[in-house]
Amino acid sequence: MRLPKQVWSSIPSESGIPIVRIKNGSILCATGMMMEPYPVEENGRSSDDAFPGASMNAIAAAGVRIQAEILRTTLPGLMDVTDSEYIHDSRIAIRRIRVYLKLRGLDSSAKRIRKLDSRLRKLGRRLGAIRDYDVLLHDARNHLKKLVKTRADGFSVFIAAFETRRSGAIAKLRQRCTPQYMDDLLASLVRFTDSFGREMREVPPRPAGLDAPSVVSDAYAKVLAFEPLVRGGEADHAVYHAIRRSAKRFRYTLEIFEPLLGPESQSFIDTARVLQDFLGSLNDAATVSRVAALYVSDRIGDGVPNHGAPDPFPEVARFLGTRQERIHRLLSNIPQKWAKFSSPLFRKRLFMLLGKCPISFSPVNVKISE
Questions:
Q1: What is the extent of the structural domain holding 273?
Q2: pLDDT in the model for residue 36
Q3: pTM of structure
């Protein structure tokens, strides 16, 4: 993930965040994120200050700090009711921070971590509710483009209803997540990383390479735990949603340690991303289908006449049918996607890679995916 220079330069040298000198003049922080080419000296460190190793705490502190800076640039945009990119970027930053907070090296601050994680989870859920409306409206507007006017008028009523609901969700977000709330959350994250910067100077650091294999394998095991349900055909949409979230955490964890594991880790990241994206498409289709079905059932239950207004019910029912067909197509392809991720060969290659994990970072040029 490439970040603007101002994000990196905003991290003070006294924060205790280690960096690694890269051959091409770029710098790589301990999070595993490649920065734009930028002189190390402009960050307050000379090339002699950079070192090729980092503790788990250092990696977590650096990752939280950088993602907090991303949040600082995206959170103000959440008040914009028209742009969904801010919501998307903020949700990614929140998820990545939560992965960093759960790295094994942070056990000494479990209480602080639980409090921060709870606040981030609540904010993520509020953003997720808005994102669900965005997914539905995107699909519904594409469906609307294919309709003749006589059918489009009724379906436009359906779209307008959910545009109103989305605006209401934005209003609730504004009410609960005030600028003061956002500033306090960001300040809490910065204080958290600052405290770890102080602790890292007081305690001899434990190289991250000692724990990285077990952290990655634990993340993979949490995905593979769903194997009996998937193979047995007993998984429902809730299970697939949980698998997607676990696969995403596994991928984020791999990306954190990619500088340690080397270029070979990219194939595992790509495989996890394919599974995650596929299950994401399934989750989107299921969400749209569920919301549309509730709209239809509520309308049937109300039994309120339209008084001459366009009737959205027939076209919404057809729209719901197309979503159900998409769900069935996606479900039929899950065994193939799952087999590659859970195969004995994949596991063997992954654990062979983890077995070769070095103790500390090597100053080599590593390509970091977005």
A1: 5-355
A2: 33
A3: 0.78
